[in-house]
Amino acid sequence: MASNEDVYDVIVVGSGGGLVGAYAAASRGLRTLVIEKTDRVGGTTAYSGAGLWYPGSAPMRRAGLDDSVEDARTYLRDCVDDESREPLQDAYLRAGVRLIDELEQNPWFQSFVHLPVPDYYPSVAGSSPTGHTVFPPQVTVAELGAHAQLVRACLPAQRWGHDEGPVLSGGRALIGRTLAAFLETGHGSLRLDTALESLVVEDGRVVGVQAVSDGEQVTFRATGGVILAAGGFERDRELRAKYQPVPERGSEWTHGAPGNTGDALQAGIAVGAATDLLDAAWFTPGLVWPDGLPLFHTGTRGGIWVNASGERFVNETRPYDQAGREIVHLHATTGVSHIPAHWIIDQRQLDRDSFGGPHDQPVRPEWFESGALKRADSLEELARLIDVPLDALRATIEEFNGYAHTGVDEKFHRGETPWDQTAQYVLGFPALPELNYPAPPPTTDWPNPLLPPLDTPPYYVATILPADIGTKGGLKIDEHARVLRPDGTPIEGLYAAGNTAAAMTGRVYPGAGAPIGSSVAFSYLAVLDITSGTD
């Protein structure tokens, strides 16, 4: 039996988007414990831009947009096309509006802002060309004080030692603000280096967790509920091999946080939880950098991607999840290797955009020294370099150049959607605000700025792999975030959110901020259910 010091009202496993749920619980006076497997707070959310896809929320109204929740509902219904997820969608839409209103009452959160990011399925009814994504304001290290040291570093800092500077933006800003708000309620506790091992069940109800903290076995009890929000299983090679469709993918190709090894998923399964979508992920194209690993790539302003047959296979500026899933699907079903894919550009694009950094600075030497970017003086040399048929490669480039001169990509329609058109200004470099790469200006040298011809040798080639920002399958939940058994009944006292839960969006990615938005919204809904008698 645990001592009184080990008894809480709510336990949240994981410190990413679920930290907002922890704040919601603690702000209501519930004694709330967050356990985090690693030595830093934030999970994959800390790597993100912290977009929250929240139609109808206050920042949308402040932006002067006629943002209809009903239109967004229609859009979600049509692009997800799964009646079983409709209750989850309705709960999510309600939660987003209410949650932003609640957070903005706390000075730590200030005011969220809307930035225009088009919905990812423009032909679906209800789609918005300005999107529904809201973002937290930046926060300085000085404002956060000691809390800032607990926030997970951004990816550029972790991978290449980049100086993070005095300002936290994107996901780090959301996590930093939430951590400060949570701890300052006086009802929140945080345990780092504490890994979930199993759930404690009594009389069919989850009443706590067993964990390893600093090498010691510990037990924490929860009188109200346990919320599993510990990310997916993308960092566990065995689970990926068991559930994911492309065996060549390594767990190191993901952008999920290091602690995301499926502990919460397996703990839920062990107490009888149902699962769904375990073969799915938030796939993205990943540009291989000089350190040999891919980095989430949001799109491209020029060049083409070709497969092992030397043929284009996708609109290279298609929304990243769609492009990533297309790579995985085609590789698995066509008999033609799409892993790796080859991104080909020419000297004209290199002069215009540079590569792997600011457009107004030369390509850094390590790109060539590492082989991450290779040069070929002719198409013949290029075909040998990437081992594709020369005739097919030449035909592919000639066809593409024809589209470039007419301005219409007849094969894949690149440049025709609102999302594509944002690429003229903001794409071509990783979607990481900490890099602060200035956007290249749009060019008018040809009819479609997103279709510059490939006709100025030498040619250059980089590697595209199917990366991801996390798995999206997990424990089945209902509209209250309660974890369900295979027969559809809830497991009392157990909740799940984020990538620990099966996504309410099914296999699609409707718009920027849906993954983080879901993690935040369903952890909040869990707290509302826990406090339903008093809230």
Structural class, by secondary structure, is alpha+beta
Separation, N- and C-terminal Cα atoms: 30 Å
Tell me the number of strands. 21
> Low-confidence parts, pLDDT < 50 over ≥5 residues?
427-436
Number of helices: 16
Average pLDDT confidence is: 92
As a percent range, the share of helical residues equals: 25-40%
What's the alpha carbon Rg, rounded to whole Å?
A: 23 Å
Shape: globular
- Specify the biggest β-sheet: 8 strands, mixed
Strand fraction:
15-25%
What are its keywords?
8-stranded mixed β-sheet; single chain; globular; 535 residues; 6-stranded antiparallel β-sheet; 30% helix; alpha+beta; 21 strands
Molecular structure report:
- The protein is of the alpha+beta class and 535 residues long.
- Helices cover 30% and strands 20% of the residues.
- It has 16 helices and 21 strands.
- Strands 1, 2, 8, 9, 10, 11, 20 and 21 form an eight-stranded mixed β-sheet that branches.
- Strand 10 and strand 11 form a beta hairpin.
- About 2% of the residues have low confidence.
Topology overview:
Elements: E1 7-13, H1 18-27, E2 32-35, E3 52-53, H2 58-62, H3 69-80, H4 86-103, E4 113-114, E5 133-135, E6 139-140, H5 141-144, H6 155-160, E7 167-168, H7 170-183, E8 188-191, E9 194-202, E10 205-213, E11 216-228, H8 237-243, H9 263-270, E12 275-276, E13 281-288, E14 294-296, E15 304-306, H10 320-333, E16 341-346, H11 347-353, H12 365-370, E17 374-376, H13 379-386, H14 390-406, H15 418-422, E18 459-471, E19 474-475, E20 482-484, E21 490-496, H16 514-530
Parallel strand pairs: 1-2, 1-11, 2-8, 11-21
Antiparallel strand pairs: 3-5, 4-5, 6-7, 9-10, 10-11, 12-19, 13-14, 13-18, 15-16, 16-18, 17-18, 20-21
Helix pairs in contact: 1-7, 1-16, 3-4, 4-16
